[in-house]
From TrEMBL:
<protein>
    <submittedName>
        <fullName>Methylmalonyl-CoA epimerase</fullName>
    </submittedName>
</protein>
<dbReference type="InterPro" id="IPR051785">
    <property type="entry name" value="MMCE/EMCE_epimerase"/>
</dbReference>
<comment type="similarity">
    <text>Belongs to the methylmalonyl-CoA epimerase family.</text>
</comment>
<dbReference type="Pfam" id="PF13669">
    <property type="entry name" value="Glyoxalase_4"/>
</dbReference>
<dbReference type="InterPro" id="IPR037523">
    <property type="entry name" value="VOC_core"/>
</dbReference>
<keyword id="KW-0479">Metal-binding</keyword>
<dbReference type="GO" id="GO:0004493">
    <property type="term" value="F:methylmalonyl-CoA epimerase activity"/>
</dbReference>
<dbReference type="InterPro" id="IPR029068">
    <property type="entry name" value="Glyas_Bleomycin-R_OHBP_Dase"/>
</dbReference>
<dbReference type="GO" id="GO:0046491">
    <property type="term" value="P:L-methylmalonyl-CoA metabolic process"/>
</dbReference>
<feature type="domain" description="VOC">
    <location>
        <begin position="3"/>
        <end position="131"/>
    </location>
</feature>
<dbReference type="GO" id="GO:0046872">
    <property type="term" value="F:metal ion binding"/>
</dbReference>
<dbReference type="InterPro" id="IPR017515">
    <property type="entry name" value="MeMalonyl-CoA_epimerase"/>
</dbReference>
């Protein structure tokens, strides 16, 4: 793993959260994107080398909606940049980590992604991210 790629924050109201984080970070969002396969709308902000991904559910049965219902707004996941997501997935499986998907899938911000189950990462949902092309 190379670095922290971003921190994902689950929010109930994207417009309100976007405004809050733009004021907090003193910058404007650089990307808004829907990820229909995950039932989520995303907004990305960057301050220096640090990125924040805001996540808003698009349907009541999406993973983010379920997360918000159970835990409320707040940090949802931490994402790490990797050079070769398939090799990293194989390495983590060999180390005993449980992955939430067997193959990488397309995520937001032009990335291939895979999630590590929080039960095997001390309660933290970990995302692996590899830039596409």
């Amino acid at each position: 793993m190379n670095k922290i790629e971003h921190i994902g924050i689950a929010v109930k109201d994207m417009a309100e959260a976007k405004n809050t984080y733009e004021l907090l970070l003193g910058t404007v969002a650089y990307k808004t994107e829907a990820v229909p396969s995950e039932g989520v709308n995303t907004v990305f902000l960057q301050s220096g080398p640090n990125k924040i991904e805001l996540l808003e559910a698009t349907s009541p049965d999406s993973p983010i909606a379920k997360y918000l219902e159970k835990r409320g707004e707040g940090i949802h996941h931490i994402a790490f940049d990797v050079d070769n997501i398939e090799a990293e997935m194989a390495r983590l499986k060999a180390e005993g980590f449980v992955l939430l998907n067997d193959v990488p899938k397309r995520g937001a911000d032009n990335k291939l992604v895979c999630f590590v189950h929080p039960k095997t990462a001390n309660g933290v949902l970990v995302e692996l991210c590899q830039s596409i092309g």
